[in-house]
Amino acid sequence: MEEGKNKKAVVLLSGGLDSATAMAIALDEGYEVHAVSFRYGQRHIIELDCANEQARAGAMEHKIVDIDLGSFGGSALTDDIDVPKHGHIGELTDEIPVTYVPARNTVFLSYALAWAEVLGAFDIFIGVNALDYSGYPDCRPEFIAAFESMANLATVAGVQGNRLTIHAPLIDLTKAGIIKRGLDLGVDYAKTTSCYDPAPDGRSCGHCDSCLLRLKGFEDAGEVDPRPYIED
After folding, report:
1. How far is CA 77 from CA 31, 61, 94, 221, in A?
2. In sequence order, what are the residues at sequence separation of 6 or more whose Cβ sits closer than 8 angstroms to the Cβ of residue 232?
């Protein structure tokens, strides 16, 4: 075990590839993991089924918190807006896509921060990535650093000198690098989903931004994605 032995950590667990890897890293570093997922008004909840399976692989406990970002809409993940589809990854642009959920990571981290205070935990893990991602503003290192600063101003632990750390261990990794790291740690990627528009039976569409980035990551890593796709 490394630094963090016998310490508690709150891990944001979405059911996706990145958060499953972040949880595996927290466990590998010796943290007692308290996982939190959100039923936030997303149109597809297959990700919560995956999060449940992942949590059983090592979390001390797993909470699914109900919040309603869908009441605001404004995203293809929470509103009646079509999820953009593409023929290949070269069609992705630098524009922030309509799948961005306004302030989602800010809200999620705030809930994680509240639970961390209750648990007496000083560490929060989030699987954001600033390289092979869809350009969301709340996945950047600047955002993570700013939230950490705010957290240490806004909590009893912070003002008493018990510094809270937001860990984003995947922030500078490519998707292939994330997959390789996860496989080294024994992550079962068959129990993760990345698709923004899955079929009712959970199969991934293969053409949304997230599917294309995931498939390229597995290809670049020299691995086969174990998740079923509609066209398989």
Report:
1. 32, 27, 19, 28
2. 203
CB neighbour list of residue 146: distance below 8 Å, 6 or more residues apart? none
Contact partners, residue 199, CB within 8 Å, separation at least 6: 205, 230
What single string gives the DSSP state of each residue in 152-170? Answer: HHHSHHHHTT---EEE-TT
CATH no. for 7-220: 3.40.50.620
For 163, other C-beta atoms within 10 Å of its C-beta total 13
Give the residue from 45, 44, 52, 41 showing the smallest Cα distance to 19: 52
- Which tens digits make up the pLDDT trace of 31-76? 999 999 999 999 888 999 999 999 998 999 999 999 999 999 999 9
Domain parsing of the chain, residue ranges: 7-220
Q: How many residues in the chain?
A: 232
SS3 225: coil
3-state secondary structure of 36: strand
Q: Is the pTM of this model over 0.85?
A: yes
